[in-house]
């Protein structure tokens, strides 16, 4: 019996609405597979909690979460709470506190109609971006000297430790070997003469341990162009925190946008729980109206199943996403459909059952 404890943090706005659909999918999986059991625990954290208590999560929040196998998060953000508070005091606290140093973002076209790229098919756009998620350009280190004076100087430091750089690159090589795919490193050593020279050096060093993995290296500017013009060049991509942040939004743009973009924050050693979440935010403009597209949150469930070692279920959920996307009227309005968040969630579960 594969029994997993899942912490639910639906958060704010449409986070609540889409996580509800993801839980329906998890319960459907549970009902179809007698060897899988989930135990859900709800955590009411987020901006509403902040407005009541002055905190985004409980004081001992990380302790409370530490015994779970995974965290399933909707989105946080509320118009009356500054975004840096909701981001740093919940999301980043979890990502950093649980050393979720791998960010996995599939760039996979689930339906040909979803890409704005002319002449690109589903075979052309199918890769995985592995983004460094713990240091690099987003280390938060730097200085602000002579603030407000004419001599003002601002320093924003990129931190690339040997440990941090090597572990993300090694993770990517392991994944490329496991999937028998080409690995592309994206950096910028011509301009960033310390950090990215180091990145390239570590990439080449680690590569010697994986002679069977085919590798390529691109500068980030050239890579951005190829994401659009020739996405078929990529199979697995490894890149730094900042480059990965930008490139994965570009990846989302060529595969259907926020309604279908997912991301996993992984602690590969499983010392701490990993976190699965749709990429989109709390969308206050459409919250509470049943307009939110739940497919991104459902794709997160597929990533969670893969992480749990239930590959057959992550494959089935992805296959069902493809099936569902063919039925345009059953989709939410952002995809040209007439259905609601709940309606699409139910339709998805129906299709998942049919697949069995
Ligand atoms: P957003 O992703 O919430 O919304 C951007 C636009 O896309 C909106 O027009 C929204 O209606 C639409 N949209 C997003 N997800 C959708 C879905 N599933 N179905 C249909 N339409 C969808 O980003 P925005 O507006 O910049 O931020 C709103 C709040 O969310 C802010 O407080 C922000 O800080 C927070 N946020 C939180 C994130 C997280 O928790 N991981 C990520 C991004 C933003
Ligand atoms: Mg981003």
TrEMBL record:
PROSITE patterns the record matches: IDH_IMDH (PS00470)
Catalytic activity, as annotated: (R)-malate + NAD(+) = pyruvate + CO2 + NADH
Gene Ontology terms, MF aspect: D-malate dehydrogenase (decarboxylating) (NAD+) activity; magnesium ion binding; NAD binding
Isopropylmalate dehydrogenase-like domain mapped to chain residues: 5-348
Cofactor(s) it depends on: Mn(2+); Mg(2+)
Keywords, sorted A to Z: Manganese, Metal-binding, NAD, Oxidoreductase
Coiled-coil intervals: none
InterPro entries to which the protein is assigned, alphabetical: ICDH/IPMDH (IPR050501), IsoCit/isopropylmalate_DH_CS (IPR019818), IsoPropMal-DH-like_dom (IPR024084), TTC_DH (IPR011829)
Top-tier EC class: oxidoreductase
EC number per UniProt: 1.1.1.83
Superkingdom of origin: Bacteria
Family: Belongs to the isocitrate and isopropylmalate dehydrogenases family.
NCBIfam families: PRK03437.1 (NF002898), TTC (TIGR02089)
The protein's name: D-malate dehydrogenase (decarboxylating)
Biological classification of the source: Bacteria, Bacillati, Bacillota, Bacilli, Bacillales
């Amino acid at each position: 019996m594969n029994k997993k404890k899942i912490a639910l943090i639906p958060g704010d706005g449409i986070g609540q609405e889409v996580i509800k659909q993801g839980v329906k999918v998890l319960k459907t999986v549970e009902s179809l597979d007698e060897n899988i059991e989930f135990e859900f625990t709800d955590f009411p954290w987020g901006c509403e909690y902040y407005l009541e208590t002055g905190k985004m999560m409980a004081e001992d929040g990380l302790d409370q979460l530490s015994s779970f196998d995974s965290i399933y998060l909707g989105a946080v953000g509320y118009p009356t709470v500054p975004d840096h508070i909701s981001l740093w005091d919940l999301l980043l606290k979890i990502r950093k506190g649980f050393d979720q140093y791998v960010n996995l973002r599939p760039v996979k076209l689930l339906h040909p109609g979803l890409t704005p790229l002319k002449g690109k098919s589903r075979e052309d756009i199918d890769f995985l971006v592995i983004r460094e998620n713990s240091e690099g350009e987003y280390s938060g280190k730097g200085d602000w000297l002579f603030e407000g004076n004419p001599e003002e100087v601002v320093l924003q430091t990129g931190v690339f430790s040997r440990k941090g750089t090597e572990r993300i690159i090694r993770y990517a090589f392991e994944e490329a070997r496991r999937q028998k795919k080409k690995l592309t490193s994206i950096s910028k050593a011509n301009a960033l003469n310390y950090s990215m020279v180091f990145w390239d050096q570590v990439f080449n060093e680690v590569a010697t341990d994986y002679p069977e993995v085919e590798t390529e290296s691109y500068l980030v500017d050239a890579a951005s162009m190829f994401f659009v013009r020739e996405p078929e060049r990529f199979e697995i991509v490894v890149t730094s925190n900042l480059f990965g942040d930008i490139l994965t939004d570009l990846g989302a743009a060529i595969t259907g946008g926020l309604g279908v973009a997912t991301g996993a924050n992984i602690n590969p050693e499983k010392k701490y729980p990993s976190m699965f979440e749709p990429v989109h935010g709390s969308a206050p403009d459409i919250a509470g109206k049943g307009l939110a597209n739940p497919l991104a949150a459902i794709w997160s469930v597929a990533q969670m199943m893969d992480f749990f070692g239930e590959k057959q279920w992550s494959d089935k959920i992805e296959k069902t996403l493809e099936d569902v996307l063919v039925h345009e009227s059953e989709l939410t309005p952002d995809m040209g459909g007439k259905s609601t968040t709940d309606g699409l969630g139910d339709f998805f579960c129906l299709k998942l059952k049919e697949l069995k």
